Amino acid sequence: MSQPNRADLGKDPQRVSGMFDQVAAGYDRTNTVMTFGNDAFWRAATTRAVAPQRYERILDLAAGTASSSASLAASGADVVAADFSPGMLAEGRRRHGHLPNLSFVEADAMNLPFGDDEFDAVTMSYGLRNVQQPKKALAELFRVTKPGGRLVINEFSTPPGKAFRGLYRFYNAQVLPRVARLAGTNADAYDYLNESIRDWPDQKLLSAWIREAGWTDVAYRNLSFGIVALHRATKPATAASASAAATKPE
Which residue intervals of 35-118 are DSSP H helices? Predict the structure, then answer.
């Protein structure tokens, strides 16, 4: 049996990808247990925020086992489930590969294998925090989105209430790894999860990063007292693609 792979805050893509490969089989079950079932509520809220429409082309980045992708595909939209973990994608194909409007692509969030202005909407749940250069990922999402297209980021965040924030941090540090062990998965991965959440910017700073990438109409709302935050934005209808802008002389 292979040794558990544990990522750290350096977020080396190979180590993070390898860690997710190892937890893929039990990932959804562990998430349901450790969030007390809130993961389904958060997924439904994300799908509503994306508001997928029939025949739209939607990118679900950091799709993992494609639970969120399948939820989006139920609308009739053409959904691309992209992730940098082959193990996660394999699990996603096993569970949802029968859906005709759902495809799977191995992809690096910092260098997406898609053309400019391809997607009507792009979304990313609990994945931006694991990217080595999250601002670069936001710029890549901007590049591949059509002018007027939509961005939805669902990510762990900072509960605004001081008392609840303290309780939440205690749970993440002391309880969550034990839950992972009981669920039979890589507990070290959930130690990393706690570290990455603690190190992650709050709602206002992430909103600022989204604006810096060129997105407009940036807004967020807290879910479950701010354990996660649902960020939304729009690519301006007149926006030039990132690659086209890069060719302009200074």
Answer: 38-50, 67-73, 86-96
